[in-house]
């Protein structure tokens, strides 16, 4: 890579930050990043609590987009470590392995959905926006390409301040999906990004049990759940037994199946 190539691509990227629609910025950013690091795919999602994340940019083929975007938006995003990190307003460059719960790669979510992506690794630039919104630009490498090397990850982390600044210039805020006009005394209920227990409101579970369900599906072990909820592991096991009994299931696979049923009912 010559210095002139770098300056030329950077000038194109800066100019593209002024666009208000289209993929010019995304393509320019991908071209600039590829001058430094190789990757197979790039996607940008916006996150607003538990709401369905809007797609802002992608490099997938139609077939790939079905898995990475369409299926993801139907519900799996709720179990995605990147989604959780975004609503917790993390900023900077993060690798999936740094954010994933301790049993993520053995979770039913990973086996049932994430493994379909055929990814060796996913990394992301996390960009908090005004209010509680956030954007995440993900870079992905397929199994055939192998994971990002240590030097690549270090370089991307060093580039994070510039990447985040460019993203904020292009997308200073997420488009609102609230009604343009509200009747008198009518308010829009805010989404609590840390409590998605409303997803389980159709089930006869206690608030604590709903929290355990959420953490189990994300890929947390009993010990990790205990730390997150500030209870002892034995109490977590009691909650899990009660959950399985109430839902008439026997495994995490059954729990994930109930999650899929609820998500399917939401999108019909």
From TrEMBL:
Keywords for this protein: DNA-binding, Transcription, Transcription regulation
Pfam families assigned to the protein according to its UniProt record, in alphabetical order: GerE
Domain HTH luxR-type positions: 198-263
InterPro entries in the record: Sig_transdc_resp-reg_C-effctor (IPR016032), Tscrpt_reg_LuxR_C (IPR000792), WH-like_DNA-bd_sf (IPR036388)
GO biological process terms on file: regulation of DNA-templated transcription
GO molecular function, one term: DNA binding
Name the UniProt record assigns to this protein: Regulatory LuxR family protein
